[in-house]
From TrEMBL:
This is Protein translocase subunit SecY. PROSITE patterns: SECY_1 (PS00755), SECY_2 (PS00756). NCBIfam families: 3a0501s007. InterPro entries: SecY, SecY/SEC61-alpha, SecY_CS, SecY_dom_sf. Its main location: membrane. The lineage of its organism: Bacteria, Pseudomonadati, Chlorobiota, Chlorobiia, Chlorobiales. It comes from Chlorobium luteolum (strain DSM 273 / BCRC 81028 / 2530) (Pelodictyon luteolum).
Length: 443
């Protein structure tokens, strides 16, 4: 079989094999740490109370950290503070001249930006850790006390441990990116999401076995979910090819150029980043409101940000559309593409080189980004509709729609593309018959 042969080829390449094993080792360390409880917390008491918090801050964090928050683990914050810091730095890069200058300074500027992102991660992690410690210490958060000895020293130790653990998870992600395979930060988020799949599957089966659901309706829902997964894959790999003609050049007795190439402009240029960015921003109000567990006014406001509320779905979808355009503008610069084409003697048929080419590419990018952004937003809020109208358990719905599915598909395809590149570079066939993953051609 083609898949079996590709796996054997991976084993024949020592560098690729070592990268994959190194990645798996670090991901195992991350999963192991998610089962270590914060000192001073009664783990059994937290586990017994976690089911009542499936749609608030508890469930929101728990989705991305693979149940670490429900276990009051040292990795409860996961990698989300780093994502939030990255969002802030990128926003500053779009509006602040100082950060724009750093972005143009090459490797030195990138190192300074990374250092600022790490410092921002520490600050945000400490803030969120304080909110977690307050929430754990308050009996009203869980109906009973989960911290036998709450107080200043518990809060201080919890903040230090959670912040240090977040920095360690950030380090794991950076090591995976540099020495492993795939994007480490994205893989950590994906592995946390996948960790909850077996339990969600069991809960859905229990609901069926107890007779609370109809088998026929469930089969129809599963068929719809399969179609949704296929649509997400098509959305992720879909491209709009722009033809580029190269002028012929005569060098000596040889003629160069004259062929036609294509610029593959992806419908979803931003990938999974708009989803991650929007989700990170949605964490912040819940984090702030967790500081006031005894305030009825604050808790009524917190209900607006509940995962199954209509206001949450509306705000979440709107932010995804915004971040899709924002991140696309950062990742794809039509002016740079037009300048590169002109230097290489290329042109788009019927379009003048220079500014006209840049405007033409920008117009196409704007038009194909709109349906991509709207599709991302609709898929992201789909679990809200499934849980309200189709009686699907929230945990199970996440894997066939919403943020979880988009992240799993996007990160999985990107990681597969990197493995594919290693195989093709050493003259081995990839996972697909054509030698490349369809729709993932190098850009």
């Amino acid at each position: 079989m083609k898949l079996t042969e590709s796996i054997r080829n991976i084993n024949k390449i020592p560098e690729l094999r070592q990268r994959i094993l190194y990645t798996l080792l670090l991901l195992f360390i991350y999963r192991l740490g998610s089962h270590i409880t914060i000192p001073g917390v009664d783990a059994s008491a937290v586990a017994g109370a976690s089911s009542s918090h499936a749609n608030d801050l508890f469930g929101l964090f728990d989705l991305f950290v693979g149940g670490a928050f429900a276990r009051a683990s040292i990795f409860s914050l996961g990698i989300m503070p780093y994502i939030s810091a990255s969002i802030i730095i990128q926003l500053l890069g779009a509006v602040t001249p100082y950060f724009q200058k750093l972005q143009q300074e090459g490797e030195e500027g990138r190192q300074k930006i990374n250092q600022m992102t790490r410092l921002g991660t520490i600050f945000i992690a400490a803030l969120q850790a304080w909110g977690v410690s307050v929430s754990l210490s308050s009996p009203s958060s869980f109906g009973h006390s989960v911290v036998p000895d709450p107080g200043f020293f518990f809060s201080l130790s919890a903040v230090i441990i959670l912040t240090a653990s977040t920095v360690f998870v950030m380090w794991l992600g950076e090591r995976i990116t540099e020495q492993g395979i795939g994007n480490g930060i994205s893989l950590i988020i994906m592995i946390g999401i996948l960790a909850g799949f077996p339990a969600s599957l069991v809960n859905e089966y229990r609901s069926l076995s107890l007779g609370s659901k109809n088998w026929i309706i469930e089969i129809i829902i599963l068929a719809m979910m399969v179609a949704i997964v296929a649509f997400v894959v098509l959305l992720t790999v879909g491209t709009r090819r722009v033809p580029v003609q190269h002028a012929k050049r005569v060098v000596g007795r040889k003629v160069y150029g004259g062929g036609t190439q294509y610029i593959p402009m992806r419908i979803n240029t931003a990938g999974v980043m708009p989803i991650i960015f929007a989700q990170s921003i949605m964490f912040l109000p819940s984090t702030f409101l967790s500081f006031f567990p005894d305030s009825e006014a604050m808790q009524s406001v917190a209900s607006i940000f509940a995962y199954d509320s209509w206001w949450y779905a509306l705000m979440f979808g709107t932010m995804i559309v915004f971040f899709t355009y924002f991140y696309t503008a950062i990742a794809f610069n039509p002016k740079e593409v037009a300048d590169t084409m002109r230097r290489q003697g290329g042109f788009i048929p019927g379009v003048r080189p220079g500014k006209s080419t840049a405007d033409f590419i920008d117009n196409i990018l704007t038009r194909i980004t709109l349906p991509g952004a709207v599709s991302l937003a609709l898929i992201a809020v789909l679990p809200t509709f499934l849980t309200k109208f189709a009686n699907v358990t929230p945990g199970f719905a996440q894997f066939f729609g919403g943020t979880s599915l988009l992240i799993i598909v996007g990160v999985g395809l990107d990681t597969l593309q990197q493995v594919e590149s290693h195989l093709l570079m050493r003259h081995y066939d990839g996972f697909m018959k054509a030698g490349k993953t369809r729709g993932r051609q190098a850009r």
